[in-house]
Design a protein that fits this description.
Distance between the termini: 88 Å
CATH architecture of the largest domain: Sandwich
Number of helices: 1
Helix content: 25-40%
Structural class: alpha+beta
Strand order of the largest sheet: 4-3-6-7-8
Order of helices and strands: HEEEEEEEE
Number of domains: 2
Shape: rod-shaped
Length: about 170
């Protein structure tokens, strides 16, 4: 049996080393590609959240000096401002204001709010009183962004968070 020359052995070793290097390079490229896709998904998610944060909500309750209805009719006015400062429209926009009727908030359907649209409205809500901590809080805007993500933006401590379901508009 013949084992071959040194040159044959050298070529075999170099061929095996080249094959191993190619396999390692392919695995490295695959790992880099997976990391790049993962980073792209994270960047897209951050962009979507930034666009959702571009939707501003401001509420200002106007009770009397004792925190109750200013006219004695059981209705407290609240000034609302909604601004879509993002580059895309938002859909299914619903403003939710707390009332004294437990489980039955006042809901105002805005529908679609276009980019740059600034809505200013005053609503009257059935409340016995508004406490000091609620003077600039309590309003929540539910909406769906251009990527079909559902959001809840609140003027309270919750701020912006993802919603599991689209807003109910009817």
């Amino acid at each position: 049996m013949e084992w071959g020359t040194v040159a044959d052995w050298a070529m075999a070793v170099l061929t095996a080393a080249g094959f191993a290097a190619a396999v390692l390079q392919l695995r490295s490229n695959l790992r880099d590609s997976q990391n790049a896709r993962k980073q792209a998904r994270q960047d897209e998610e951050n962009t979507r959240e930034a666009m959702a944060r571009a939707v501003g909500l401001k509420s200002d309750w106007r009770p009397n000096e004792n925190g109750g209805p200013p006219n004695g009719d059981g209705l407290i006015p609240v000034d609302i401002e909604v601004l879509n400062a993002g580059p895309y429209p938002i859909r299914n926009a619903v403003l939710v204001l707390p009332t004294d009727d437990e489980g039955v908030p006042k809901e105002i359907v805005y529908g679609t709010i276009l980019p740059g649209e600034h809505l200013i409205d005053t609503y009257e809500v059935r409340r016995v009183e508004v406490t000091f901590g609620e003077l600039t809080g309590g309003a929540t805007l539910l909406f769906t962004d251009a990527y079909e993500n559902h959001w809840s933006s609140s003027t309270s401590w919750r701020g912006l968070e993802r919603a599991l379901e689209p807003p109910r508009i009817c």
